[in-house]
Every structure is written in structure tokens, then in C-alpha cells.
Amino acid sequence: MILLERIANIFPEQGDIPAEFRLEAPIHQKEYLVDGELRQWEGARHTVLSPVCVRTDEGITPVEIGSYPLAGESAATEALRAALDAYDNGRGEWPTMSVRGRIRCVEDFTARMIARKPEVVKLLMWEIGKTYADSEKEFDRTVEYIYATVDALKDLDRDGSRFKIEQGIIAQIRRAPLGVVLCMGPFNYPLNETFTTLIPALIMGNTVLFKPPKHGTLLFYPLLEAFRSAFPRGVVNTLYGRGNTVVPALMASGKINALALIGSSKVADQLKKQHPKVNRLRAILGLDAKNLAILLDDADVELAVRECLLGTLSFNGQRCTAIKMIFVHRTIADAFLKRFTEAVNELKFGMPWEKGVFITPLPEPNKPAYLKSCLDDALANGAAILNEGGGTIHHTFVYPAVVYPVNDRMKLYREEQFGPVIPVIPFEDIETPVAYLIDSDHGQQVSVFGRDPSRLARLIDPLVNQVCRVNINSQCQRGPDTLPFTGRKDSAEGTLSVSDALRAFSIRTLVAAKQTEENKDILNAIVNEHQSKFLSTQFIF
Hints:
Blueprint: H1 3-8, E1 27-28, E2 31-34, E3 37-40, E4 45-56, E5 59-69, H2 73-87, H3 99-115, H4 117-128, H5 132-159, E6 164-166, E7 169-177, E8 180-184, H6 192-203, E9 207-211, H7 224-230, E10 236-238, H8 243-252, E11 258-262, H9 265-274, E12 282-286, E13 291-295, H10 301-313, E14 323-329, H11 330-346, H12 367-380, E15 384-385, E16 393-394, E17 397-398, E18 401-404, H13 411-414, E19 421-427, H14 431-439, E20 442-443, E21 445-449, H15 453-463, E22 469-472, E23 488-489, E24 492-493, H16 498-504, E25 506-514, H17 517-528
Parallel strand pairs: 1-5, 8-9, 8-11, 9-10, 11-12, 13-14, 13-21, 14-19, 18-19, 21-22
Antiparallel strand pairs: 2-3, 4-5, 6-7, 7-25, 12-24, 15-18, 16-17, 20-23
Helix pairs in contact: 2-8, 3-5, 3-7, 4-5, 5-6, 6-16, 10-11
């Protein structure tokens, strides 16, 4: 069967879906979590359609997964009030709880979460079209992240368990929460990326308003009871509905102390402007990126093909860390493109439950049309699609397209495509890709491929001042989670890693006293009699 026929036949009939991967029935979520209660929602609802379609007598139809509450401003205000009451200006049970106590709650939640793994993984696959294998990896990586966060907090707390004496002042320095945090995660890693902000925010003593992404909402439904049971009332509150409906009033209230958003810089700019006291708002943002791969003339072509394949097309290129543009030295362009297009067309594509599948349907309904507009624009401005079948669209599925040569007249030159379209640009002078990075609005990562240490060294020094991670002979990526994850320009604000996130959602606070005998007696009494959870020398193992 030729490639185009295989693409045309990608979607199965309902009966062809393996039993272990089927959804028995649509999941119609009627509950939302506010103030420690799973409340019933009786209002409007949003129907969730999967990017996976099936063949029926009426034609190819998306599978209905279920629905969730489509709440409005009043429900958002209700959730905000619950979070404010739970925080109680820093006097609530959660912000004044000992670090040891908060760790116990997070560990309790994690155990409850693990018990719901099969449901969460299956919903993750159906909602965003991620392969079943990668959905399992995302769940497992999230659990590992939580455990690593707990360990990092223990280290942080141990560092703060001693007193310092400087210039006649006795002080103990620890980290305290910020207040109410609004967490908004992305659709491409709805569980993992959301929890990389949600868990650090919680474990540091903040109360949270949690808004799931539009695509990837139902997968959190099995976890609502875990949140309710593991944390004191009002500590975790869920928001459902359109972001432009439920979020503006929250920001305009001035009661949000920290905004954690993994999404677009445009949305982040709008939200920050809606806050009346922006100097009181801590922003932790993971935003747009247009990461480059730069292939020098001495690059190992086979290695570059392997890494660029993963970098551009893992999860269909729907990653902020994906390689969104390849600059290849003209002397090796033909050799690279020949092998690269062959490798692209060797990738297995199909339904997300198929073993070894790499390219799957896209969850954003408007994405195929947008990618087509990018391809049409590129073709009109002198580029060609190099791989057979590249850019073929079949309902929610888009076959990867290698586009060459791209120039500055094309949309693909500047816009973040966030999908399986791979722009390639030839260059002769290394200043060409470097100038692109300098002029870019983005500054997350770059991958450089070459063999000469001295040439690579000369590139590293200027590149680290344009992006926040330079990858040598390897794809752009986030992990390991212990490494800093951030960006320059419009790509990020704040730094996320296991330890950096704990600092991002807290502030250094200290108790200090002059070194007098009376004060020493007071401090000793408080510590020895365990009268304070903050002022303490207890050591968490």
C-alpha cells in the first residue's frame, strides 16, 4: 500500500480498537473541587472530542470522550474566596503547617494518585492523542518529579535549620509561602507540566487555584478525590471554563499572589496587565520558543539526523522544547536532507495505542488548517516539501513535512508552528543563524552539531547569552528535571527545576534578634520547647 493510501486509512472502525484501550463510556464530569468539597455542577458543559476519529456510516467522526463543567465568573470567585480563606493572610492551617506535615500530605496525595494511574493514562492518550507508551511515561515522570520535590524540600529545610550569627545579630532564615497561586498548565504535557508548578506551589505552603488546560481536562477528574482527601479544605480548588471568562476577574481582584502559566507569551502579557498591583504578583512562566538546530559543516550527519528527528517530531513537534527550525551548512545540506527525509518517512504513524507509533493525530481542532496555511505560504515564497506525502492532512492527522529552503518572507521563519512541520534553512556564514537568534523574540534553547572543540567553544560563549541552554550534538529538551529550565526574552520568566521551583513559589524570610542574653534565652525556649514551626532546629531525614 502506498503512503498516501496508508494516510487515508489511518482511522479505524470502533470495533478495531483493542479492548484494553477502549473507553467503556463517555465520562461526564459533574463535580468540581472547591473549599474541600466535591460540588455538583448543574450549568453549561463542554463536550470533549478526541483527536482520535473512527469510521462510521456517517463518515469519519471524532470519538466523544465526555464533558466537563463550563463554569463562569461566579464559580471562579467562589474558588478564589475558598483559597483566600484557607490561606487566611498566612494564618491558615496550611501556610502555618510544619514542612514535615506538608510533606506527609503530598505523599498521601501521591499514593492516591498512583492508585488511579490506569484511568489517568488512558484519558491522557484519548484527550490529546499522545501515544499510550508516552502517556505512561508522562505519568511515571510526574510521580518521580513529586518524589524529587519532596527530597529537595528536605534538603532546603535542613539548610535552614541552623541559626546564623552576624555582627551581633542572631537569625534563622527559611522560606515562606507567597499566598494564593493561580496554576494554568499546557495541553501538550497536561499532567507533568501542570504538576511542575502545582506541587512546588502546594508543598511550600501556598493555596492554589488550579485550571486544567482546555485539551487535557478530564484526565484530572480521577484525581479530584485525591486532592480533596489529602489536603486541608480550600488548599486546592479547581477552575473550569473558558480562560477568558474565568481568569480576568481573578487577576483584576488583585488577590492572586503568584501566576504559574505554561502557555503563550501573549496570554501571559494580558493576564499580568489585568492585575492592579503588578509589583505584588510573582510570575512563573514557561512560554513560546523557536529553538534552532545549527549543523556546522563538520557535523556528524547520521547523529544530527537522529537527534533532529527526535527534536522536531517527538509528540508531533508539540513541545515548547522542540527544534522548530534547522539551519544546515550548505556543504552538507544535500546529504543531511536526503537522510533526514528518509528517516521522517520511516517513522510509524497511526493510532496512539499502536506499539511503536510515533506520529499521531493532533488535539487542537484548528491546527491542521493553520499548518496548511504555513505550508501554502512557504510554497508560494519559493520553498518545496521534500518528503513524500509531507503535509498531507486527513481530518485531525497531519503527516510531517520537511520544508526547504525557508527564507525570511515565510510565516515558518518567525512563527512557532507547534506541529509536525520542519523548516530547514541553508547557511554559509555562521553569523546567519547567530543573527537569527539575536533578532528572535525567543531565547529558550539551541542545539549545535559539530566535531571541532575550538569552533564549538567559540559558539558556546555568545550563544549562552542568547538562550538558556546550549545542547551539544543533542536535541533540545527539558530534562533531567533537576537541571534549570527557563528562557530569555519572551520564552520564560522565572526558573523551573526541582529545586528552583521551590524557590520560585516562596520567599526568603527570617527571624532576627540582637545577641543579648535575654534574647538568647527566649530563642532557646522557643526552640527547645518546639513552640514554633518556623523557628526550629528540627532536622527532617
